[in-house]
Predict the structure of N-methylhydantoinase B.
Amino acid sequence: MTQLSKPPLSTVSLQVMWNRLISIVEEQAQALIRTAFSTSVREAGDLSAGVYNRAGLMLAQAVTGTPGHVNAMADAVAHFIREIGPANILEGDIYITNDPWMGTGHLHDITVVTPSFHQGRHVGFFACTAHVVDIGGRGFGADANSVYEEGLYIPIMKFADRGKVDQPFVRLVRGNIREPDQVVGDIFALATCNDVGHRRLIGMLDEFALDGLEQVGDFILENSRRATLERIAALPRGEAEGSMLSDGFATPIELRVKVTIGTDEVCVDFAGSSGVDPKGINCPMVYSKAYACYALKCAIAPEIPNNAASLEPFRITAPDNTIVNALHPAPVALRHVIGHLIPDTVYDALDKLLPRTVPAEGAGPLCNFQVSLRPASEASRLAGARRAEVLMFNCGGSGARPTLDGMNTTAFPSGVMTMPIEATEHAGPIIIWRKELRPDSGGAGRFRGGLGQFMEVGAVEGHVFDMSAMFDRVKHPPRGRLGGSGGAATEIRLDDGTAMAGKGRQAVPEGRKVMLSLPGGAGHGPAAERKRSEVLRDLALGYISAKAARTDYGLGDAEIAAVEAGLKRGELPSVGAFSSEVVAGSPEENALDQ
């Protein structure tokens, strides 16, 4: 008896299976974290995982991972089906690509897709993506003039054919990258995590005596689409424009957007944005769409699980060969710098349509850098100095929310975690001499922006290094909302005071350190409306200086002296008492507080 001849499943059973699928893909993601070789995956969670029906529609995504990966990967499986061909999809196959325009936006992300078979019948796909530490070429940075310079291109192809790994392909990869063990290890980890998802899915199908995912897939997509459309229908109709300036590489980049709320869709149009940049900060449409959809979903329907149907009512368009719709062969290695600014640009427009719903601007792009280390001399090499590539993800502060402060050193919109110092130093001969919160970097406001951080980076004695900087917000720091102040700008220099550029590969002399001041999030609402107890708390914790407490918030000298005297006695004011004060807000004000 086939599934089609069985009676329909109950709504309760279908909901249980939906939850089970979400738990399966979360286990899939955790398997990748536990088996990956690269610190960007193991420590920062720069990955995604999902399950798809036979048509390539995403049914569920892992909670762990980044919106840029998972929302871009939502469209990727359809490309795999087209390129491989439905008749050539066989049990035991594993497919792979890092195509920026059919994957997740740049060559450093490898996407692996595995068809899932049950009792000889093709029932769906599992897919996952991870950022690898190296892909050859110029290395991870903005310096390339075309995608051909940025590394090894892997077209959509079979990594394994009916269970047999393509060993010539593995040798080709190993011969073209600087960290072959890490990258090839990550590819096998990607394949393994898909297999974990497949085995859990087969267990679920057997448990519920199902032949496939048709019933539960239709239930997921129909309910998600209906719920999202209901949310959109409840919104006020209208359109508004927003904009933002980015540092760019050599010249500033302008992002422009028009958001239109209709009866059954929300349209985002990036017409008017800057054209393609000569250097590798361009963003393929798949990645721009991913973050535009994420911004809308956070503001409009955050509780609805992410899948093909809940994303479908969001229509994202941009003219060809703009910075947010760069066509091949544009250089795209740092597509995240522009992509991570897209949500705040969308919110600049959405704030005019849905007041007190969206946060103030935050640091936006991850504060990444890659260090290429080498022996300082032949004597150093003989003494044990070695070559190494070390990638580190760090975060500035997020913007203040309508009823809450911004989060310190927290990546929004990417959600990527800061890498621990120990893991970074273990990856190569690098030393992080300093890593601490940056006082006064969060913009003042009724709700304060999240803090950025200070870092000092150097190399182990006997090494010199090049730093590929991937920073923004140097000349255009985060902007406040509704009277809030802007966050602090990014600063980068050597320890002798020499200024460094925010982007590009730059040599660091032997013995020198790089001094980083990472940006803070902007404030929301006038600083004069901030609760006195919260200002005292910030001063006691060192989040703001006495000068900022006085000039930004109007704190009196006696109050400042009382806090300072208490700290000298080792008496930290009761943070719990301050944080327990509840700020009442409207449903719109609280929409993004979760």
Remarks:
- The longest strand covers residues 121-131.
